[in-house]
């Protein structure tokens, strides 16, 4: 089983009728066309000027899509009408429910104007009709295939998969001061930061965010939990930390909020949602799903007449065949830095061999990591699979870059992107380094694989990512507003915006089905397909309270092994004894 980054096309599926889709880009294109068309008509034709709302509506929609504020003055100026006539037109448009008027200041004396959801939907329908009737506007956007007969005069298809633009709140987010976020420094949250002005327009309040590396983020979450009142309204939490955070009461459970809202949890990848549950309660909403995959350079495989490896023995053989230090190309790059990075490598590899790091109950689809009790907490460093995983890591050393023992998440992805390794274990979170970078030697030249398996394993892609949570020590008067903002920041429309601004991860099926999103990178469709097929799994890194410590123990003991300071047996025995002691200390058995 492998996944190419050159799929046949998002629309070439069986038994699926073409559905017209309308994107923000197409609406923008239509807005520009209408403005230019009207200007040219007025210059060229002897037209009687009069009352027309079109310039007001195009300016209002254009500002909304670009994240700019509209005011009465700006719309009056754009209308081309006299002041009095334009003011009457605005009042009439607002009366019909097409404009949202929102106070800009606490006094309520000045307002910003925004398109209502009704107006946004009307523009989508107008664009569907206009792009077929007018040749220039009907050309495909960004390479989308052109289909005929998708529109008949007086009617249109319904059920487009394309997500509409974010709509603004009818009244600004009821929160005092700024909306304060603590996030991870990765492409998704960097995209969120780049969209800050647009999101501020949606909320009607300023946004302040702090982005930290993974270890510093966890430290800040713990420090913030000790404060009398939280410094943040919303916190981005790494999925495997939710057990620890929930057990310690650092996040608010959100079940009651979900029940009272229209949030559709079925749109999220099940494994991502499961990662944010603890003892049957939901503590966060996913904002990204980022599995770890094996990525391979297609050209180098073809040069040697090889196929992408699907087992660990094939991976070793393929890495040896592609390892060419004289050309500056290592066989494979992976997380081997001491502690957390190497610990993750071990947990994921032992899982691909058919054994989670804890003695979890086996289920039909893998292992149960939500109901962990008693002997299920017992570590499995003393298992045959653990030895096989450790020996596999030792074999990888011989076909890895020279700096492998200090290599972690970014470095391994960078190594692959720069053409210094033929293969790599890589989280899709960092795929923009080679998926979107045309200078990368791997660009448009990648095979995506689940983790190579052992004799008793089956194809899996260990899932990671982040979910947004509300700290339990948040000011009680800010809770409802924080939840509303959290829902918006994890909405399908928002996640699509992140992807359009440099992210390549999504936890929602609806986003992955959006034709415009599919055109950005085939990786999004690939991960979505893995989610539907059950390849994405959370149990390789079970979200129990002790998982961070277990990962660190594995990463310390096995690093000594890779350095030649300990034998395989000694490293695994030490890891077993240390983790056993931890579980006994916490009263699990």
Topology (SSEs and partners):
Layout: E1 3-4, H1 24-44, H2 54-66, H3 72-79, H4 83-95, E2 99-103, E3 111-115, H5 117-133, E4 151-152, E5 155-156, E6 179-184, H6 187-194, H7 196-203, E7 207-212, H8 214-225, E8 234-238, H9 242-247, H10 255-260, H11 270-275, E9 277-278, E10 281-282, E11 285-286, E12 290-297, H12 298-303, H13 312-322, E13 330-333, H14 340-352, E14 361-363, E15 366-368, H15 384-397, H16 409-417, E16 421-427, H17 432-435, E17 446-449, E18 461-464, E19 466-469, H18 479-489, H19 492-500, H20 509-512, H21 515-520, H22 522-533, E20 536-537, H23 547-562, H24 568-585
Helix pairs in contact: 1-2, 2-3, 3-4, 6-19, 14-15, 14-23, 23-24
- Which ranges are low-confidence, i.e. pLDDT below 50, for 5 or more consecutive residues? 1-21, 136-159
Mean pLDDT: 86
Largest sheet: 7 strands, mixed
How many strands in all?
A: 20
Proportion of helical residues: 40-55%
The number of helices is 24
Q: Determine Rg (CA atoms, Å).
A: 27 Å
Distance between the termini: 40 Å
What structural category do the secondary elements indicate? Answer: alpha+beta
What characteristic shape results from the CA principal axes? globular
Query: Roughly what fraction of the amino acids lie in strands?
Result: 5-15%
Describe the structure.
The longest helix is centred in the first third of the chain and has 21 residues, at 24-44. The relative contact order is 0.14. Strand 9 and strand 10 (281-282) form a beta hairpin. Strands 1, 12, 13, 16, 17, 18 and 20 form a 7-stranded mixed sheet that branches. The protein is an alpha+beta fold. It is built from 24 helices and 20 strands.
């Amino acid at each position: 089983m492998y996944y190419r980054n050159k799929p046949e096309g998002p629309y070439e599926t069986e038994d699926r009728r073409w559905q017209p889709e309308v994107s923000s880009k197409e609406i923008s294109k239509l807005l520009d066309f209408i403005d230019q068309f009207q200007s040219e008509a007025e210059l060229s034709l002897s037209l009687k000027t009069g009352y027309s709302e079109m310039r007001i509506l195009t300016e209002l929609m254009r500002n909304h899509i670009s994240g700019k504020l509209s005011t009465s003055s700006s719309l009056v100026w754009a209308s081309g009408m006299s002041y009095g006539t334009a003011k009457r037109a605005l009042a009439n448009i607002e009366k019909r429910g097409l404009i949202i008027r929102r106070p800009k200041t606490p006094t309520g004396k000045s307002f910003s104007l925004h398109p209502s959801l009704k107006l946004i939907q009307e523009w989508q329908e107008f664009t569907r009709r206009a792009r077929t009737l007018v040749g220039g506007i009907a050309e495909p956007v960004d390479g989308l295939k052109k289909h005929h007969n998708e529109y008949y005069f007086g009617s249109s298809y319904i059920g487009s998969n394309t997500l509409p633009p974010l709509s603004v709140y009818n009244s600004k987010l009821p929160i005092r001061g700024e909306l304060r976020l603590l996030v991870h420094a990765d492409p998704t949250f960097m995209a969120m930061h780049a969209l800050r002005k647009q999101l501020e327009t949606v909320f009607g309040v300023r946004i302040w965010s702090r982005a930290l590396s993974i270890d510093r983020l966890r430290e800040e979450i713990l420090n913030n939990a000790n404060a009398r009142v939280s410094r943040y309204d919303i916190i981005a939490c790494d999925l495997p930390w939710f057990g620890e955070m929930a057990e310690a009461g650092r996040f608010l459970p959100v079940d009651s909020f979900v029940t009272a809202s229209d949030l559709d949890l079925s749109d999220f990848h099940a494994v991502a949602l499961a990662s944010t549950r603890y003892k049957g309660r939901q503590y966060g909403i996913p904002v990204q799903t980022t599995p770890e995959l094996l990525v391979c350079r297609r050209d180098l495989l073809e040069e040697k007449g090889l196929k992408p490896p699907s087992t660990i023995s094939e991976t070793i053989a393929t890495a040896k065949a592609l390892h060419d230090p004289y050309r500056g190309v290592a066989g494979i790059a992976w997380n081997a830095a001491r502690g957390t990075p190497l610990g993750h490598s071990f947990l994921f590899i032992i899982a691909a061999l058919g054994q989670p790091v804890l003695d979890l109950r086996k289920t039909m689809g893998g292992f149960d990591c939500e109901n962990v009790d008693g002997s299920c907490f017992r570590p499995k460093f003393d298992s045959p699979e653990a030895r096989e995983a450790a020996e596999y890591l030792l074999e990888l050393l011989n076909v890895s870059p020279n700096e492998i023992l200090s290599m972690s998440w970014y470095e391994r992805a960078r190594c692959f992107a720069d053409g210094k390794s033929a293969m790599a274990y890589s989280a899709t979170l960092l795929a923009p380094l080679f998926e979107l970078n045309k200078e990368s030697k791997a660009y448009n030249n990648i095979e995506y694989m689940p983790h190579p398996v052992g004799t008793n394993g089956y194809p899996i892609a260990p899932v990671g990512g982040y979910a947004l949570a509300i700290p339990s020590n948040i000011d009680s008067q800010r809770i409802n507003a924080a939840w509303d903002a959290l829902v918006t920041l994890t909405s399908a429309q928002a996640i699509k915006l992140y992807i359009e601004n440099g992210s390549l991860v999504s936890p929602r099926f609806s986003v992955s089905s959006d034709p415009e999103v599919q055109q950005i990178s085939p990786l999004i469709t690939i991960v979505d397909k893995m989610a539907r097929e059950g390849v994405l799994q959370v149990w390789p890194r079970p979200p129990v309270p002790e998982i961070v410590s277990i990962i660190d123990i594995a990463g310390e003991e096995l690093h000594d092994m890779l350095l030649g300071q300990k034998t395989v047996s000694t490293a695994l025995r030490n890891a077993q004894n240390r983790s056993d002691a931890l579980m006994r200390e916490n009263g699990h058995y």
